[in-house]
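This protein record is not my work; I was only asked to verify it. Where you disagree with what is written, explain briefly why. This is what I was given:
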Amino acid sequence: MDVHGRLYIAGEWTPAADGALFGTRDPADGQALGTCAEAGRADVDAAVDAARRALDDPSWAGLTAAERARLLWRVAELIERDAAELAELETRDQGQPLAVARGVSVAGAAEHFRYYAGWATKIEGSVAPVSFPGTLHFTRREPVGVCALITPWNFPLMIAAWKMAPALACGNTVVVKPAEQTPLTTLHLVRLCEEAGFPPGAVNLLTGGPGTGRALVGHPGVDKVSFTGSTEVGREIVRASADDLKRVTLELGGKAPSIVARDADIDAAVQGNVQGALLNSGQVCAAYARFYVDRRRAQEFTEKLAAAVAGLRLGPGLSPDTQLGPLVTEEHLNRVDALVRRGVAEGAELVTGGGRAGEGPLEHGNFYRPTVFAGVVDEMAIARQEVFGPVLPVLTYEDEDELAARANDTPFGLAAAVWTRDLSTAHRLAEDIRAGAVFVNMPAVPDPAAPWGGFRSSGWGREMGSYALDVFTETKGVWIHHG
C-alpha cells in the first residue's frame, strides 16, 4: 500500500481530516519526492484518543512481556529485510551518503528494536525492607501512558527507532511525529510495525509541521513527550507541558569540544576529527564543533585538517563515491553560510572552504564546502553557536589547566572528545568536562547499550541503555500488611 499522503491512526491509514498536504524534496537536486498528510488538530485528537484507548485494550495491555519482545524483534527483522529500500529512501529524503544510511541509520534502527526486545522481559521491580512490622513492600514498573515522540530531520529513521523501541518495550502507546523535512522513512517504519502485528492504537503516526507538533505537545491526553531537536524548541515544549506536568525527555543542541593534547597522534586526531565533525555533513548534534589544539601542534593539525576536508568528494548521497552529501534544505544552508560570513567578519582566518558548492552536478543541490577556520577565539560566534554544518573552527591553548574551563564555557553539554596518549590526561579531562558523553581517541558513536543525553541546555534525561526504561516507566510502590 502506498502510504504517502496518509496518517496512521488506530490501525488505519487515513488522509488528514481537512485533506491538507505538504511535499518533501531531495536535497541533492531539489526534485519532489513525495506528498504527506498535514495533520491538524482533529487528527491529533484522533491519534491521541486511539493511543489512550489502546492503553486499556487487552490486545495491547494484555500482552505478556515476551509477546511484546517478539513484536519488537519482528520489526528489527523487517527493517533488515527492507534495508536497501530504507537506505535509499533515507538518502533521497535526508541527503546522507548511502553508506551512512546503510551502516548507521538502517543498521542502528534494527539494533535498537532488537536491543529493547531483549529488555522487555527484564523490566523488574524490587522489594524494600520497610520498617513497618508485618508489611511487604515491593515496586512495579508501569507504563507512563501515551507518549508523543517527536523526531528531527538529521537521522529520522534511527532516532525514531531509539524512541519507539523502548517506549513500546515498556508497554506504552505512541504517537510519532517526524520532522516535516524528512518524513518518508518514518512512514515506512510505521508500516513495518503494522506488518509486525502491533494492535490498533499502539503505534500512531502524524506527519506535519510545527503546528502539528504544538498541538500534540499541548494535548491533555498525552502523558509524556520525548523530543530531539533544537534547544529553542525544547524550551517551548517545556513551557507547553507545564500546565499538566507532562513527563518530558529532551535531547537538544550541542557544541562539542574536541581537545587535541600536545602528545596526541596528530594524524589519528585529524582522521578522527574529520569523521566526528563531518558525519552527515556536520548535521549531528554531537558533531565535534570546536577544536582546542596545543599551540605547538596547531599549525600541523590545521594544515592536515584542511587538506583532509578539502579532498572530500561532495555529491548526491546515492552516488557511490560521495563522501559528503548536501545540507537538508536551502534555508539551513543559508543559516550555515551566514555563520561562516560572520566568522570572517569577526576576524577568523578562513583556511579552506567557506562557500556553497554549486557547479556541475551540484548546481541544484544544497551543497556546502567543508570549511576550516584558524585563529578562532572563544568569543566568536562560530566557537559558541551551534552551526550544524561542515564548519570546523580551530582554537589554540597554552596550558592544559585552562582546557576544562574553556570547554565548559558554553550553555551546551552533549558530547566532547579528547585526543591523547596519556591515560591521566584522558581521565582528568573526562572527569572535568561537563558533557553527557566524552569520547577518547574516537568519533562520537552512540550505541543502544550506552546512555545518550546532555547536561544543561543540551537536554533533560537519557535515552538508550537501561536509562530509557527509567523515562518510559513510572515506579509504583505497593504496601501489603499481613497482620
